[in-house]
Amino acid sequence: MFEHEKLVFLLVIVRLRGINCAMEERVIAGVETRIEEYPHSVFLLVKCNAVWMCGASILNQEILLTAGHCVTSCQVDTDETHIITGYVGHEDLRKVTITRTAKDLVVHENYNDYSLENDVAIVMTESIPLSDKSKRVILHCDWSFPNTPIAYVAGWGIYDESTPNKGSKILMSVKQSVKTPEICEVIGYLTPGMFCAGSTRAEDPRAARGDSGSALVYREFHQIGIVSFKVKSYPALMVYTNVTYYYQWIQTKSDQLYCKSTETTSNQQ
Ligand SMILES: *[C@@H]1O[C@H](CO)[C@@H](O)[C@H](O)[C@H]1NC(C)=O
Predict the structure, then answer these.
(1) How far is the CA of 39 from the centre of ligand 1 (A)?
(2) Which of 62, 92, 231, 262 is most buried per CB count within 10 Å?
């Protein structure tokens, strides 16, 4: 297959001084943006064996959508040292007041850590209040979009807890044009649940490491993709999980998580 670069960023690595090249991996030529423009955006801090960060989107008040590789090593309900926290409702991470801890999650059962096939997961949290700063995305069961739409992805890129004045604390967005499968072939073999977007020119704007799991949206709130990976030779060409392709899976698993949580609640009563 191909050598891929998962976009999670290990905070542990950033903490070491002198690895400044890592900082260049932030959204390049992206623009700082307000949460109202991407109110579905969630910053995920994942503490499972190591600490890393990802993006996610709000599917409904209790369910977040993210990439499988962001949470695959976490079983939140079995091990209390594994904690996933979602930050919601502000473009500036230092000012976020709404944080939610994950209660449960499901990673696609055929997720492949090597090929990144089926790179999709859902995370259940305590209820998130909705407002103009925290809104749901809409998923579509058919691809009722242009074949190669222009879409946008927003993420926080690199975030380093230990140096609060450095790194991106502000949500950044970048425009991505979805490419035809023929163009995506430069990356290697993509499975039917993947597509690519961005640019084959390395110097063009791109999503950052740590933007993994973030939503690619068409017309503000129609989510079409989840940031999955890129290959080193095309740093501005991003591979996305096709959300429409996994629509049924997302729907079914969300229902299951929801039912499971209400059963647990009623058992306790
Ligand atoms: C995404 O998946 C849907 C459903 O399988 C498909 O119709 C659509 O063409 C795919 N989109 C891309 C850009 O590959």
Answers:
(1) 25
(2) 62
